[in-house]
Specification:
201 residues, 7 helices, 10 strands, 18% strand
């Protein structure tokens, strides 16, 4: 539950054109947005400091500015292990959430992405696993995550598009196997596909 957080975008749109997704129609191509620092400082002035940081980007790792975004998040006080204490109270852990998930097809190219993400107090790291064709990049991304100590993971698991029940089972089974092997804690979040043009969604 999110009760005490900044909600921000560092980028809008997406580099992908997935047929099941409404983002290309609603937001268009990937592009960076405004300064996180300016937005958060503005919120602080109006409403006071928040504990957590929720980024609503659709594909943050696709941003050409990705490393700078991570550095800015760290500079804003959300480094790994960050805490906050307000009004002399007990320090509490801060949390970063890339709420829309990250792209395994990009994460698997190099461990640089997970090394950068591990610099912030992210919990959980959400990785999309939309169909069985992503099995290899998804598994590699999970292994990179475990290598850098990111053990609390979640994944969005689209179903009811072109997959079969067996495909969905295989994806869920992979998460169980990876948890047992790597000691990760992957929580799967199945999301039922519904066409974006349906009015009775």
């Amino acid at each position: 539950p999110v009760q005490d957080a900044y909600f921000v975008y560092a980028s809008r749109g997406c580099v992908r054109k997935c047929h099941f997704c409404g983002v290309p129609k609603l937001e268009g191509d990937q592009r960076d947005t405004y300064s996180l620092t300016k937005t958060i400082k503005g919120i602080d002035e109006l409403y006071g400091q928040k504990k957590d940081l929720t980024l609503m980007d659709n594909n943050i790792v696709a941003s050409a500015n990705f490393k700078n975004i991570i550095a800015e998040i760290v500079d804003l006080g959300f480094e790994k292990g960050a805490t906050i204490s307000r009004n002399g109270g007990t320090p509490v852990n801060r949390r970063v959430d890339f709420n829309q998930g990250v792209d395994a097809r990009i994460l698997c190219k190099t461990d640089m992405f997970l090394k950068e993400i591990s610099k912030v107090c992210i919990r959980p790291l959400r990785i999309a696993f939309d169909h069985i064709g992503l099995k290899k990049p998804y598994e590699k991304a999970i292994r990179y995550s475990a290598d850098v100590g990111l053990m609390e993971l979640s994944n969005y698991m689209l179903y009811n598009f072109h997959d079969t029940p067996e495909d969905l089972y295989e994806r869920m089974r992979l998460n169980i196997d990876l948890n047992q092997e790597l000691k990760t804690k992957i929580f799967s979040f199945p999301m039922r596909y519904q066409p974006t043009d349906r009015q009775d969604r």
